[in-house]
From TrEMBL:
Location, primary (coarse class): membrane
Name this polypeptide is given: OmpP1/FadL family transporter
Keywords (A to Z) from UniProt: Cell outer membrane, Membrane, Signal, Transmembrane, Transmembrane beta strand
Family named by the database record: Belongs to the OmpP1/FadL family.
Domain of life of the organism encoding this protein: Bacteria
Length: 430
């Protein structure tokens, strides 16, 4: 059997969970692989992530340097499980319109977050004088109500490709993207003495457009295929509704702000994907993916949050609700093998750099290592079902609140955490 017949059979078995638990808000990995399949092609898949992320409040930490940590009386320093399970679907359609032109649609959910601090760490000690209003607050909780974040996005990419020869494919197109989210901050960790310890924001869904461009080179006889794809940043002007609460410093700030819904700019990051595969022996293909995402230039500063942050002592310029110090680089390498006319499988190893450490308390992990296994069954030459699993060793992280961004200060340690991702994909060649 020629190696070119293995290209689809092997690589599709990697299943749709390239990003899964990547740095910052990265999720799907934004693969272009479906558009580069030969002929007419359709696929649909789903990935599910089951993370296990917990930590402990930093030993000796206090929200007020003038007050000893023991005065706060934290009953339980364990942060507890805070990362929620989530899933994201994907789908793609590719049509070979002529010998030289192709058309594609790709749907995915590239960015997202789902986290909630569920463990009650309220204080039970009798607190003196100025600390008394915070007697029912833990580091990330007010009573039994915890800090939480949910962010969702959707992408539809419309792509047109030009193939001047059998070896080259030059492509580009437009991207329509939506984003929305909810954040609530609880506890004395945020802003010192609960300045933001009862903050809520609802980010209304917004749609905006961007673009992508790339090229691919292939030698079908040896199953060689490489591609480089650039995706632009996408600027959103979202409607944000905010409230700051009524206790502590918030009681002073609230009358000044007035809390009128305002526009907030959120720019999702630009990225580059490099994909490579080649036949290495009969019935065997090696593959690799490298991804860069420009998280260092990403931030979210809701309108009223930004104004209120300037009231924090020493923060006259204000600060962002979410920001990152580093760009993300991730890589996956693996081997796929055709086992029979109907079965193929693969094994892969992945690494992610993270987006800086300390990290936000809203996503307290710093990169990962993973190992994955995939299998594909093809009941007919035109159809297949692929499934796989990946195990993630999540990087240890120091979690800091927004007001400490850019410093070495942190509130909690998150160590020895992991996650498992599952993927399922079905495809049809026609």
């Amino acid at each position: 059997m020629k190696l070119k017949t293995l290209t689809t059979a092997i690589i599709l078995a990697t299943v749709p969970m390239t990003g899964a638990f990547a740095a910052a808000l990265d999720r799907s990995g934004q693969s272009i692989a479906a558009f580069l399949q030969p002929g007419n092609y359709f696929e649909a898949g789903i990935s599910v992530l089951d993370p296990n992320v917990s930590g402990n409040v930093k030993s000796g930490w206090t929200p007020n340097p003038a007050a000893p940590a023991v005065a706060i009386g934290l009953e339980n320093t364990s942060v507890g499980e805070m990362a929620g399970d989530y899933y994201f679907p994907s789908a793609a359609l590719k049509l070979q319109l002529t010998d030289h032109f192709s058309f594609g649609l790709i749907y995915d959910q590239p960015f997202g977050a789902d986290a909630e601090y569920k463990t009650d760490t309220k204080k039970t000690a009798a607190l003196p004088g100025p600390l008394a209003p915070f007697a029912n607050q833990g580091a990330f909780h007010n009573g039994t109500e915890g800090t939480a974040v949910e962010v969702k996005s959707q992408n539809i990419s419309v792509i047109l490709g030009f193939q001047p020869t059998e070896n080259w494919n030059i492509y580009g197109g437009g991207v329509y993207q939506t984003v929305k989210g909810d954040v609530q901050l609880r506890g004395v960790a945020y802003g010192g003495l609960a300045a933001f310890g009862d903050y809520n924001t609802n980010i209304g869904e917004d749609g905006a457009t961007g673009w992508l461009a790339g090229f691919a080179y292939q030698i079908p006889e040896i199953a060689l295929k490489t591609s480089v794809t650039y995706r632009s940043e996408i600027e959103h002007e979202v409607q944000v509704t905010e409230s700051l609460g009524t206790s502590g410093l918030a009681a002073t700030i609230n009358p000044v702000l007035g809390y009128t819904p305002g526009q907030t700019e959120i720019t999702t990051p630009q990225s580059v994907n490099l994909d490579f595969q080649t036949g290495v022996m009969a019935n065997t293909v090696a593959f690799a993916n490298v991804r860069w995402v420009n998280w260092k230039d990403f931030s979210i500063r809701p309108n009223d949050f930004g104004h209120a942050s300037k009231f924090i002592p020493g923060k006259s310029q204000g600060f962002d609700l979410v920001a990152y110090t580093d760009d993300q680089i991730s890589a996956t390498v693996g081997i796929g093998r055709k086992l029979s006319e109907q079965w193929a499988g693969n094994i892969s190893i992945g690494w992610d750099s993270g987006a800086g450490n300390p990290v936000s308390t809203l996503g307290p992990t710093e990169g990962y290592w993973n190992v994955g296994l995939g299998a594909q069954f093809s009941p007919t030459p035109q159809t297949f079902i692929a499934g796989g699993v990946k195990y993630f060793w999540l990087g240890d992280a120091k979690a800091q609140v927004a007001s400490d961004f850019g410093t070495a200060s942190y509130v909690a340690n998150f160590e020895d955490n992991d996650a498992i991702a599952y993927g399922l994909k079905m495809g049809y060649k026609f």
